[in-house]
Amino acid sequence: MAKLYVVGTGPGDISKITAEALAALKKCEVIVGYTVYTDIIKKFLPNKKYVSTPMTKEKDRCLLAYKYAETENTAIICSGDAGVYGMAGLVIELKHLFKNVELTIIPGVTAALSGGALLGSPLTVDFAVISLSDLLTPYELIQKRIRCAAQGDFVICIYNPSSKKRSGYLKEACQIIMEHRGPKTVCGVVRNIGRDGEEKKILTLKELCDYQADMFTTVFIGNSATTVKEGFMVTPRGYIL
Amino acid sequence: MAKLYVVGTGPGDISKITAEALAALKKCEVIVGYTVYTDIIKKFLPNKKYVSTPMTKEKDRCLLAYKYAETENTAIICSGDAGVYGMAGLVIELKHLFKNVELTIIPGVTAALSGGALLGSPLTVDFAVISLSDLLTPYELIQKRIRCAAQGDFVICIYNPSSKKRSGYLKEACQIIMEHRGPKTVCGVVRNIGRDGEEKKILTLKELCDYQADMFTTVFIGNSATTVKEGFMVTPRGYIL
Q: How far is A217 from chain B (nearest CA, A)?
């Protein structure tokens, strides 16, 4: 039986891929994914068949991967983790159409972890991950989640903080959070994790309101105990020092 | 200037370590950590000085690592991610005592991601990660966070669901969540991720109430849309199929 792997390759360059993910890719004859990500893998594993598909055609990409997987070991790759805002969910939802393909999900380092490590340790304790993209989630539900996470004093990690169509969403999220946390709450932003132009910045929640995020940005909003130490954003675990 | 790396090695065996983490460990002369984790690394990198410390002496472990790092490249290792309930936070908090040591945090695959991949794709969309350990967090705050996450229809991933001293906490968490979600909500548990005795189980929220978790268990509680497809736990992203 041929196999389909859904592989999280980690952020940016190949250095954050796991040994397990790399081993799975080596076993495959076909690697399917969005062009930016297949190009990264191609440099390291040139002797594979690479199939690129446009960004918005997620279902077509999954069906194509299954078609290949019926006869050859195939991987469908995702930046970051395979599951978190990745393709694993959709691939599983389509599995019933391809009973003869064996499916394996291989995790990877998602931006919450890689971005967190760049800033320091914002996610030491309980945290919530929320995407501000309303392509597939109603905006009212996103706002409700922001509010609930703020009420629970969760550290909040925001994916997809902005795009041209929703330039005001990050500001609105910050305003909701400021109903529960002070304007000096420690926040952090990272851009282009593991890629050229990688950058990070620590700022206050008030300053974050007016920060111009883009689709390559991941945002971290500290809880009430998050602080800055020696240039690192850190949420204390609670040890007595 | 000598370096101290805080390295997340991923769950269980060495296969979920990232290329970046392995490269950092290779650069180090000294590797500090809890015995179970240093033993795993020692098999692959035998020619290092390994320093093991007991589980509860976290501050001592960090200070020891800094002491070594003053003269030799040193890594302090954490299972899973370096930040998420890991040592990175505490290491940063102690950084001011060792101005001459350069600090680098290297992320790893945390149990939410590796356990999620074993089950399928529970964390496809917005999720909250909550530890039920009340050693360092007041139990009232943990319960509040459970409630807020349930209200926001977050998928919830629970770390440290049980120990001898707090055997009823998982049941109490489930009862709070059942005030907001039905008893048939799809849940999953994984044990011993990446290790001997690895197991997974999909069950309902009602069944989870009476599940006997231990300290090697990670728990996933689906949101209102989470379902089971072909044996996988999956939270749909929201694509129209």
A: 17
Helix/strand/coil for B103? strand
CB B201, CB B188: distance < 8 Å: yes
Closest CA to A12 of B77, B118, B107, B80: B107
Lowest average pLDDT, out of A71-85, A169-183, B44-58, B107-121, goes to B44-58
Closest alpha carbon within chain B to A115:
B107
Nearest CB neighbour to B136, from listed A89, A114, A237? A237
Which residues on A lie below 8 Å from B92 (Cβ)? Answer: 120-121, 229-230, 232, 234
Mean pLDDT of A120-138: 96
Q: Can you tell me the mean pLDDT for B39-49?
A: 94
Summarised one tens digit per residue, pLDDT across range A215-225 is 899 999 999 99
CA triple B115-A140-A111, angle to 5 deg: 35
Q: Is the Cα torsion angle B123, B125, B131, B136 positive or negative in sign?
A: positive
Query: Chain B residue with minimal CA distance to A125?
Result: B85
CB contact under 8 A, B229 and A93: yes
Chain mean position to CA A52: 20
Q: Look at residue A23 in the predicted model and tell me its pLDDT.
A: 97
B51 CB-side CA count, 13 A: 18
Residue B212 has pLDDT above 90, yes or no: yes
Taking the C-alpha atoms of residue B65 and residue B59, their distance in angstroms, rounded to an integer, is 10
Tell me whether 0.90 is exceeded by the ipTM: yes
Question: Are A229 and B93 within 8 A, CB to CB?
Answer: yes
Strand partners, A203: A187
Q: Which two tokens stand for residue B175?
A: 């009862």
8 Å CB contact between B28 and B5: yes
pTM over the 0.95 mark: yes
